Amino acid sequence: RSRQLDCGTGTTLGCLVSSDGPTETKCVSTGAIIASGELVEGSIHSLWTSGTAAVYDSVCQEMADSAAANFKAPLMPSPGMMPRKGAVPVAPQQPHDGPYSWRDFFTQREIVSVTQGDFAVYTVGDGPTVLLLLHGGGLAAQSWALFGREAAARVEGCTIVAIDFRGHGDTTAEPETDLSKATLSEDVIAVTDELRKGEDWEAVHLMGHSMGGAIAVHVAATGKLRGLASLTVVDVVEGSALEAVRHMNEFLTLRPESFSTTDAAVEWALATRQLRNRGSAQVSVPSQLVEVEATAPGDETSWRWRVDLAASEPHWVGWFEGLSGKFLAQSVPKLLILAGITTLDKDLTIGQMQGKFQLEVLERVGHCVHEDAPARVADVMARFLERVGGGQTKRLTARHQP
User: Structure pTM?
Assistant: First the structure.
């Protein structure tokens, strides 16, 4: 049931609170009880803070303590392809209660050096069929962690490859603020060309989320990605994306600039429903942050966003303008995955009626579809790849946690 709770310091919490537990949430500034009942995973629907950051941290800690016992750690991957030069091979990890490392989901990480810079690349799985993953703006390759593990478990002979864009994650490339579609597309092509040296890649299936989905379409449109066999776009449609751009700065002003810990950032992402899957949040959110050392006596270390999304504003329209036409123009098999019922623009509606692409709509997920429901998205991809000749679906004896 929905409640509006005021802690008495000007901070209002929009919460969903159960009534069957003794937990009390207190305002650390006044000591007043602002909520009672058991706080469980996903209980806070939205959190708006106009008062002290300490109140926010208090509520996040309540959620962390009560939700930890309800979260089951996901199964870990098996080792995949042999390490390339510069890669970091890892042994299988045992399940634990998080937060998670890339090692819990990918079997290797390497820094791929090309003319444009040094790009962090994560892989899991083994085989000549490659599923190349491009993350959304402000996110990182580790946002694909749970999905990558699930996809590798479902498709025979498939290598999952996730790249950190410039200005994101552990990639270093100058200028970091040049996130134009042309620059990002050339980066992807250069890194892919370098990766495939000495590898027996038969086909590349390109998949991108949000901004990464737009860049995937632009990469395909260049005709420079060798071996392109299919194109998948996750939750980005030209019309709605251009409309959302108008409100982007408003969203960014509501987002905290920094956090006292990475755990606090994870709880913020869950509380505001940016993510709905704790397991994914625990590996994805920390990869979006950088540590800021204390600069004065008495100050504490904090964590801020790795990417200044506001600085990328000059490129927002360019990412999405003309996207539908380019998507439909690609001759390879195409898949569009959406979160819930989304209004397609005119071009996509006509194209879908003409059977020019496969459309999959997933309910009960947010914008980060592959993070909220990695197993369900992996099921969709496994069937799609099998249909287009990109691999054979494995018979699973046990399903991973979604």
Answer: 0.76
